[in-house]
Specification:
Radius of gyration of chain A: 20 Å
Order of helices and strands of chain A: HHHHHHEEHHHHEEHHH
CATH architecture of the largest domain in chain B: Roll
Largest sheet of chain B: 6 strands, antiparallel
Largest interface: A-B, 94 and 92 residues
Strand content of chain A: 5-15%
Order of helices and strands of chain B: HHHHHHEEEHEHEE
Number of strands of chain B: 6
Number of domains of chain A: 2
Number of strands of chain A: 4
Radius of gyration of chain B: 20 Å
CATH class of the largest domain in chain A: Alpha Beta
Distance between the termini of chain B: 25 Å
Distance between the termini of chain A: 49 Å
Oligomer: heterodimer
CATH topology of the largest domain in chain B: SH3 type barrels
Number of helices of chain A: 13
Number of helices of chain B: 8
Shape of chain B: globular
Helix content of chain B: 25-40%
Chain lengths: 225, 219
């Protein structure tokens, strides 16, 4: 069963940036096969021993692949833009304010929202691993977990931002938040100009994942159309 | 421990390379490795700090060479092996070779939603008085514990200012070592980039970390 043929998907550089050189030294297909076979063997043994319920595994995957993602965080941001009272609650007690919209639980137990302004830009990182606010952003992208980002976001955030195409005024204050405990950070990006009469639904389409990490800005109405 | 996971301030990894329209998982095995890791915390009865410590205990060369879910898999295998839940022989054979160890809990499909919604809050009732106040200057102690810790190297020995107090939280250092939660006050401490990286650093930049009380001392 575990020897079943695998889809011939090359282990691409996107799988892990810090993995590049390693990948290039090996045959992609055989490397993938080895890991794939190992995971299949482990799963079948754990199921046989009664330690895991395969249906629970399917549900865990489905939850984070289809239901939980940055569209949740975009609702939070759009609400904060549209409703000043909500924004106050979000900045004061993000866990409770985010729970108002139904986003709670694993890796979002203790939330803090940090607001971008004309003077301040916030950037979130986890230098020690991959801490990320799952209920509002889903699972982190590969680059967030990669060595280039984790090493340099705290040392030289402007160069990291430049790699994301974000150039800030030289006098703009940059606050980097390293998620070293169980507090999870959500950046509240600045509301784009020209959106004054917009509905929450319409506003949420301007909120990108990266704008809630701090490696991006919210889209302008022109960029969104 | 001063392992490869503690990357803040390291150099030479090259530019950040973001993939456009990145999928949540890049292959089928990543999905299964992710789900197995979450699900096995029930029968394995380990905590998140033990999971992190297991990944960090890899040889630095291995840690840096492995992809993210390969790291998760290696950590999972280590935790399972330590508890006798699976053996290397079984993985090599691809089948169960010995009877299952009795376990207290299994994550069933019916419980998934509830378990995820509950998560793992780490705030606890404080049993000691709060030592530092918002606005106070504090020194990140020069600590190099051999076990798991969450005080990154790049702040050790630097002076910052407390900006937030988060109540008492489970201390990862003891929790990872199986020595209990021993809750401590948790603070956000902001450091000027010039304090961390020297005079040449950008004076508009600050870096904040969340630090447990025993990581800090009064200045």
């Amino acid at each position: 069963m575990i020897a079943r043929a695998l889809p011939n998907v090359a282990l691409s550089r996107r799988q892990n940036d810090m993995h590049d050189e390693h990948d290039h030294d090996h045959d992609h297909g055989s490397h993938l096969t080895e890991v794939e076979l190992r995971v299949r063997a482990i799963e079948s043994i754990l199921v046989a021993k009664g330690y895991v319920d395969p249906k629970a595994l399917d549900l865990l995957i489905e939850t984070y692949e289809t239901r939980v993602g940055p569209h949740n965080g975009a609702r939070v941001v759009a609400r904060a833009w549209a409703d000043p009272n909500y924004k106050d609650r979000l900045l004061k007690d993000a866990t409770a304010a985010i729970a108002e919209l139904g986003y709670t639980g694993r890796q979002g137990e203790h939330m803090v929202a940090v607001e971008n302004t004309d003077r301040v830009h916030n950037l979130v990182v986890c230098t020690l691993c991959s801490c990320y606010p799952w209920p509002v952003l889903g699972l982190p992208p590969v680059w967030y977990k990669s060595a280039p980002y984790r090493s340099r976001a705290v040392l030289d955030p402007r160069s990291v931002l430049a790699e994301f195409g974000v150039t800030l005024p030289p006098d703009k204050e940059i606050k980097v938040w390293d998620s070293t405990a169980e507090i999870r950070y959500l950046v509240l990006p600045q509301r784009p100009a020209g959106t004054e009469a917009w509905s929450e639904d319409k506003l949420s389409a301007l909120v990108t994942r990266d704008s809630m990490i701090g490696t991006g800005l919210a889209k302008s109405p022109a960029e969104a159309s | 421990m001063n392992g490869a996971q503690d990357m803040g301030g390291m150099m030479g990894f090259g530019p950040v390379s973001a993939e456009q329209d990145e999928p949540v998982f890049h292959s089928a095995w990543e999905r299964r490795a992710f789900a197995l890791t979450l699900a096995m915390a029930a029968p394995g009865a380990w905590n998140i700090d033990q999971s992190r410590a297991a990944r960090e205990s890899l040889h630095p060369a291995q840690y840096l060479a492995k992809s993210y879910y390969e790291l998760w898999l290696a950590g999972l295998e280590k935790l399972m092996a330590e508890r006798g839940l699976i053996t290397a022989e079984e993985i090599a054979a691809g089948k169960s070779l010995q009877a299952a160890t009795p376990v207290a809990r299994v994550l069933t499909a019916e419980r998934v939603e509830r378990v995820l919604a509950r998560g793992g809050p780490t705030e606890r009732v404080a049993v000691t008085p709060q030592r530092f106040q918002v606005g106070e200057r504090v020194l990140a102690r020069n600590l190099h514990p051999a076990g798991h810790t969450r005080l990154p190297r790049y702040v050790r020995g630097s002076v910052g200012r407390v900006t937030h107090v988060h109540g008492a939280h489970v201390l990862p250092d003891t929790n990872a070592a199986g020595r209990g939660e021993q809750p401590e006050w948790l603070y956000t401490v902001r450091f000027a980039a010039q304090e961390l990286w020297g005079e040449a650093a950008d004076r508009t930049v600050s870096v904040s970390v969340d630090a447990f009380e025993s990581y800090l001392e009064a200045v």
